[in-house]
Amino acid sequence: MAAAPPPPLEPSPLPVFSQEGFGDKFLRKTRENPLVPLGCLCTVGVLTYGLISFQRGNTRHSQLMMRARILAQGFTIAALLGGMVVTAMKSRK
């Protein structure tokens, strides 16, 4: 029985995007994974609110907001990793 020839070693072609600007790329990436920008906005909002509380001398509330910031950052990282997994699964099909 003859063996089949090996598959070609050429990599699969990458998708070609036209010259897209920052705004177009941002919108495309946001549509692909909408939870990452949401997590970033939550992180920035909680951080800002925590810094304002710290400046006003409300240390208890400031500490609470810094803990909430950590949770928001964790959500953002989880959303980023989840989006990467979904993108990898789509590319395999």
UniProtKB/TrEMBL annotation:
GO terms for cellular component: mitochondrial membrane. GO terms for biological process: mitochondrial respirasome assembly. The chain crosses the membrane at residues 35-54, 70-89. Keywords: Membrane, Transmembrane, Transmembrane helix. Gene3D superfamilies: 6.10.140.1320. PROSITE patterns: HIG1 (PS51503). Pfam families: HIG_1_N. The keyword Metal-binding does not apply. It is found in: Mitochondrion membrane. Residues 7-93 form the HIG1 domain. Its main location: mitochondrion. The keyword Chloroplast does not apply. Signal peptide: none annotated. PANTHER family: HIG1 DOMAIN FAMILY MEMBER 2A, HYPOXIA-INDUCBILE GENE 1 HIG1 -RELATED. This is HIG1 domain-containing protein. It comes from Strix occidentalis caurina (northern spotted owl).
